[in-house]
Amino acid sequence: MQVDSPELVEKVKHGEIDESLYSRQLYVLGHEAMKRMGSSNVLIVGLRGLGVEIAKNIALAGVKSLTLFDPAPAAIADLSSQFFLTPEDVGKPRAEVTAPRVAELNAYTPVSVLPGQSLTEDLEKLKVYQIVVLTSTTLKDQKLIAEFCHEHGIYVVIVDTFGLFGYIFTDFGKNFTVGDATGENPLTGIVAGINEEGLVSALDDTRHGFEDGDYVTFTEIRGMEALNNSEPRKVTVKGPFTFSIGDVSGLGTYQSGGRYTQVKMPKFIDFQPFSEQLKKPELVISDFAKFDRPAQIHLGVQALHMFAETHKNQLPRPHHEGDAKEARGDLSPMAAFFGGLAAQEVLKAVSGKFNPIVQWMYFDSLESLPTTIKRSEELCAPRNSRYDGQIAVFGQEFQDKLANINEFLVGAGAIGCEMLKNWAMIGLSTGPEGQITVTDMDQIEKSNLNRQFLFRTTDVGKLKSDCAATAVQAMNPDLKGKITALKERVGADSEHIFNEDFWAKLDGVTNALDNVDARTYVDRRCVFFRKPLLESGTLGTKGNTQVIIPRLTESYSSSHDPPEKSFPMCTLRSFPNQIQHTIAWARDIFESLFAGPPEVVNQYLTQPGYIERTLKQGGSEKQTLENLRDFLVTEKPLSFDDCIVWARHQFEKYYNNAIQQLLFNFPRDSVTSSGALFWSGPKRAPTPLKFDSKNDTHLAYIIAAANLHAFNYNIKNPGVDKDHYRKVTDDMIIPEFTPSSGVKIQADDNEEPEAQPISFDDNEEINKLVSSLPDPKTLAGFKLEPVEFEKDDDTNHHIDFITAASNLRAENYEIEPADRHNTKFIAGKIIPAIATTTALVTGLVILELYKVIDNNQDIERYKNGFVNLALPFFGFSEPIASPKTKYKGPNGEVVLDKLWDRFEIEDVTLQEFLDHFEKQGLEIVMVSSGVSLLYASFYPPGKVKDRLPMKMSKLIAEISRKPIPEHQKSVIIEIHPETPDGEEVEAPYVMLKLDK
Q1: Is 465 exposed, middle or buried (CB count within 10 Å of its CB: 0-12, 13-18, 19+)?
Q2: Cα separation values, 55 from 100, 141, 663, 904, Å
Q3: Once rounded to an integer, what is the mean pLDDT over residues 300-319?
Q4: 635 and 613 within one domain
Q5: Which of 480, 619, 769, 899 could join 625 via S-S bond, C-beta 3.0 to 4.6 A?
């Protein structure tokens, strides 16, 4: 499949960015940072698991060139983490066999091999690179290369892993400039007042979010005009709603208005050379529970290097008495963690975006070591196996256990691809009883290729789950026949596929999802079937992991994120003050013009009695009938030119007439009941727009709207150019608009909209509208095509329309417009993403998977992780324990796990059901299943008497009036019990086992 046009390839060669490929990454890094990356040459030394992880992430991110150096022959043990090596490559130079496979990841990143056997023989050849990354390099060579790079202004990153330990070192030279330390959007807000001492108050007690030392600029201030667009001023925070900007004497007296905007000021860092830092390291803490460990590992790593230098570059043997433990192993998840981290540091160095690690960071996961399985020198000895790097740490017995796991992966996107790759490397489910099931309903799109690295351009349009499964089976042939790829969504509608038999066979579940609803559903199923769940997510440079263990930890659904912020309706309709408001409004207009009405028309034409049902609903019946009349009679186009005419009328309706009506209702000089100016604070007085076909935004609106309207009616665009659109619109005569005194507009969201009782005139108008509609029988076969919003197709006019519609409204209200790229981000609710964070987070998940497979029941050994690579910040915490409840039973105190425990009971009668709990010291007050109340102690005796002899399954089916599905082997029942002395008990649910 041809994905890139020759024109696009030519543009990219001249420094333009392929937004369709880099879309999600651009929302993390921005155009400026990516242009800097596009002029950078990167050298990676060492192509074992860690080196190839870094190479993969940098190739996906996009740099000017990527050069690989590793003349050493590939060994069988490399296959435990080097996913681009095959058994056939053993004995061949690592860089030579790896380079072509890295090159496949991104056509815009040329990949080459640096020839030679030693880098240190001729250090001058490093001068062509902006940054050098060293992995699997001796301490002696690290010192030589790092010193040369420091002296010649070449950035250097040194990174390595040893079993469950790893470290990274950075040196970006003297006076390194960080343009944006956090990557967060600049804070902005509305000024409520500025006093003579320079104290600024935010409007309506809005938290400004500043910290001491931030900088701000101002616009639209009246009275202190000299502050507008002046040099950034330093902030001193005085409170959550106030901040000081220092001396404002001589600037006049503040009157009204104004907006403040944070300015990202450059930050300068001096890096010390490697040799100095070795003696006196500056450490970034990765886990505050191990505060003292980095200094210890710093000495330990140097000791390992010293050992290697005196033992022919061999590291200590695992469990050998004279050698250091766990230092020889090569683990895929550690390579993933440090590969993501190191690649992000490379991108920081060449782009100046985000705060770098200064200058060392150590990380270990010793708690991943198995506690239930024996390890010894013999059990951890090499077996000439692709898993030798892992066996060195965990032993053969653990490897066998890992190979026979039955795991379910939900999602095959960015995290899913990385997860499957890691599973392939560690040998998960490769044994006789092992099985992986992966499901994803999505097809591959071009924007996926930038971070979902198992996919290639030839895969665009194919199913993600199929392609991902095929790719990892090629990486590790041991997985052949061990992966089942499905395309079903996991939800209530697919419980006949993911049924109780399916769940019973699973050892665990891993989520790789991008929405809360799906995560919550899978979490609830894991709780019900008592399966461990590994949860993770990313948002740009931020990532998190959560481990959920039955009867030990709380679940994903135990805590909730705050609800997504929404805008007040009257702000969107009449009083926008920021571009997010106009984009949200444009997105609503898109639906109300091109999606809603065509669907209504199709319902009218195909559903008998549609009008009668509409008239019964009340509230919006008039609007529905007007849409039917407009789309079927008065505005029904017969040609593409008619669509252009329609688009021009829409422009007039929204950007001129509606604004004139608003200003008629609320003139510019109107005041509120308290005497304050109505148009002040967040309310900006708009100006009607006069259409100008020579204005690019005006014409863009006409082009997009006309094409979308034509799409609704299946009218083909005959290939008209911009001049044709101009001619049609310029030839139109638009009637003058006269505002009406009968139109009511809500002044704010606190004002109740007036209830409009349907009058005789309204009824008459509705009858006229109904009689104006054509009989559906006369339009047999006629059908409209509703538009389904799709943000990633640049040819469908969707984002073009929303961008133009939003920016025209922004022009009405004198709001700074947004370009197409940022409009797409907001309107499409795009989740920014970058491969580095995904790789790192997945590494953390696998380190928890080791513990899950070990069946470790010590909650203190598990870690939930929170990272932000931009800052950089790493936080790890013990999972929260699942909540417990207790009550006094007949034999003493009974403790129940409120989340994981449940009562299990056969399909007995209601009488037997009540008796069963009475024996356990619980008197049942109410019994329900779903919305059906099966029993209540307050029910009349006659009603209870009829139900007592009925089997529970029959009772449920009768009361709910629907049969229990055939595939269902159990039913959830909720009970509300009390102790004999009347104390309420917070009891878990009951699982009724059916006779199937």
Answers
A1: buried
A2: 12, 20, 59, 52
A3: 66
A4: yes
A5: 769
**For residue 20, what pLDDT band results from cuts at 50, 70 and 90?**
confident
Mean model confidence pLDDT for the chain: 92
pLDDT band at 314 (very low <50, low <70, confident <90, very high): low
| Claim to verify: residue 140 and residue 18 sit in the same structural domain | yes
Report whether 894 contacts 561 (CB < 8 A): no
List Cβ neighbours of 859 (8 Å cut-off, separation of 6 or more): 549, 552, 553, 878, 879, 881
Question: How far is the first Cα of the chain from the last one, in angstroms, to the nearest whole number?
Answer: 49
Question: Are residues 922 and 971 located together in one domain of the fold?
Answer: yes
Active site residues: 570
909: pLDDT strictly greater than 60: yes
Last residue within a domain, chosen from 263, 289, 308 = 263
Residue with tokens 């506690």: 371
Number of structural domains (the chain) is 5
Give the DSSP letter of residue 551.
T
Regarding pTM above 0.85, the answer is yes
HSE-CB at 474 with a 13 A cutoff on CA atoms is 10
448 and 552 co-located in one domain:
yes
For residue 307, how far is the Cα from the chain centroid?
44
- Secondary element (H or E) of residue 919: helix 910-919
Residue pair 389/81 in contact by the 8 Å Cβ criterion? yes
Measure Cα distances from 718 to 108, 251, 647, 730, 785 in Å. 35, 60, 17, 20, 18
Same-domain status, 246 and 329 = no
**CA–CA separation, 839 and 841 (whole Å):** 6
Residue 597 backbone dihedrals phi, psi, to 5 degrees: -60, -45
Q: What is the domain extent for residue 524?
A: 399-563+832-867
Q: What does the DSSP 8-state code read for residue 477?
A: G
Q: At what angle do helices 579-594 and 820-827 cross, to 10 degrees?
A: 70
Say which amino acid occupies 326.
E
Residue with tokens 């909650």, as numbered in its chain: 859
DSSP string, 109-170: S-EEE--SS-STT-GGGGGG-SEEEE-S--HHHHHHHHHHHHHTT-EEEEEEEETTEEEEEE
Print the SS3 string covering 378-420: CCCCCCCCCCHHHHHHHCHHHHHHHHCCEEEEECCCHHHHHHH
3-state secondary structure of 75: coil
DSSP state of 223: S
Shortest CA distance to 363 belongs to which of 342, 382, 377? 342
**Cβ atoms of residues 235 and 243 within 8 Å:** yes
- Position 922 in a domain: yes
